[in-house]
């Protein structure tokens, strides 16, 4: 690939994660579907926050977590997303620039508050999310900086962006600029409930080549093709997508390109699985780091699996150790 200033430009919801441990009974009492992501309004956000246990606040959002992982590997990244000029907006901007990510988006001075995602982690490590999108929903075509898009090998878009209509336009605009500059576009399906809402549109993006690289987990892929059979879903995506990386939980991942299919086992997790928040985001980080360096499908899958294994070994959606050091110790970079 021709020289680029950034390995990856992430475009997504600029969200501050509010993470707390919860019992299954709390989820039932609050009417939350375990393991899902639900969109909530500001009133519900305030009520839920009031009933949650002690929480950790950290800047998050799917695409931003991916960029944090990429930076930890030694990659270069930029992010476009909308926050408000409020306390949590300041937290997000500080955190993302502190990890070396270029963040040129100007904060909104009016309108909704900065987005937050309440992440309830149950003892089995599963995470259940309630998201107030707030200011993140204001992201639109005018926020897409063409020079930044053109300067990135891959523009990475999260499926969650498909909820706000203006963000869809921003997404398509960015993809057009990226392809015009000879760059690639990646999409993460984000959540099976998200896929249920926008299945036809996601399939159209993949089949028409708007998306060059697709990331999904097994449940998202099965939702995309409305099947309970992962093999049927893999055969379908092999036909539809130029390049797809599908995570299979404890069974590792499978990477599909052309007629090729590469299976990569899951990297060992140091100790128990503590919190699955960010597993898919960090898998994409490792995969894209290897992909833009032309390291091949196998190594891309291995680095993705390693990054995912690190993040599920602790609470929080961003690495706690240097992924670069970890990858070097395993002989992966």
UniProtKB/TrEMBL annotation:
Keyword set, alphabetical order: Kinase, Transferase
Domain Carbohydrate kinase PfkB: 59-319
CDD domains reported in the protein's UniProt record: adenosine_kinase
GO function terms (MF aspect): kinase activity
One Pfam family matching this protein: PfkB
Entry keyword annotation includes Kinase: yes
InterPro entries the record matches: Carb_kinase_PfkB-like (IPR052700), PfkB_dom (IPR011611), Ribokinase-like (IPR029056)
Entry's family note: Belongs to the carbohydrate kinase PfkB family.
PANTHER family per the UniProt record, alphabetical: CARBOHYDRATE KINASE PFKB DOMAIN-CONTAINING PROTEIN, SUGAR KINASE
The name this protein goes by in its record: Adenosine kinase
Protein species of origin: Methylopila capsulata
């Amino acid at each position: 690939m021709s020289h680029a200033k950034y390995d990856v430009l992430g475009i997504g919801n600029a969200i501050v994660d509010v993470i707390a441990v919860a019992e299954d009974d709390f989820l039932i009492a609050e009417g939350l579907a375990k393991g899902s992501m639900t969109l909530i309004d500001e009133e519900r956000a305030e009520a839920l926050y009031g009933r949650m246990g002690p929480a950790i606040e950290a800047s998050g959002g799917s695409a931003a977590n991916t960029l944090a992982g990429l930076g930890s590997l030694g990659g270069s990244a930029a992010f476009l997303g909308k926050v408000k000029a409020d306390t949590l907006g300041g937290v997000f901007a500080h955190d993302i620039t502190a990890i070396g990510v270029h963040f040129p988006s100007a904060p909104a001075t009016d309108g909704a508050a900065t987005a937050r995602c309440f992440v309830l982690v149950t003892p089995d490590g599963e995470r259940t999310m309630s998201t107030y999108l707030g200011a993140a929903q204001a992201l639109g075509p005018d926020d897409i900086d063409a020079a930044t898009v053109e300067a990135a090998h891959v523009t990475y878009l999260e499926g969650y962006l498909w909820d706000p209509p203006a963000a869809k336009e921003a997404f398509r605009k960015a993809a057009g600029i990226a392809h015009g500059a000879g760059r690639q576009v990646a999409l993460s399906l984000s959540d099976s409930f998200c896929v249920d809402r926008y299945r036809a549109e996601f399939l159209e993006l993949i089949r028409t080549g708007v998306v060059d690289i697709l990331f999904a987990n097994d449940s998202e892929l099965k939702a995309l093709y409305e099947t309970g059979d992962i093999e049927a879903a893999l055969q379908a995506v092999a036909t539809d997508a130029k390049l797809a990386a599908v995570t299979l939980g404890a069974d590792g991942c499978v990477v599909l390109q052309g007629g090729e299919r590469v299976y990569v086992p899951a990297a060992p997790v140091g100790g128990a699985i503590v919190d699955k928040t960010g597993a898919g985001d960090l898998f994409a980080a490792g995969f894209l780091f290897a992909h833009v360096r032309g390291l091949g499908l196998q190594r891309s899958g291995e680095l993705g699996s390693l990054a995912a294994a690190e993040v599920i070994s602790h609470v929080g959606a961003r690495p706690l150790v240097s992924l670069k050091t970890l990858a070097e110790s395993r002989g992966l970079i």
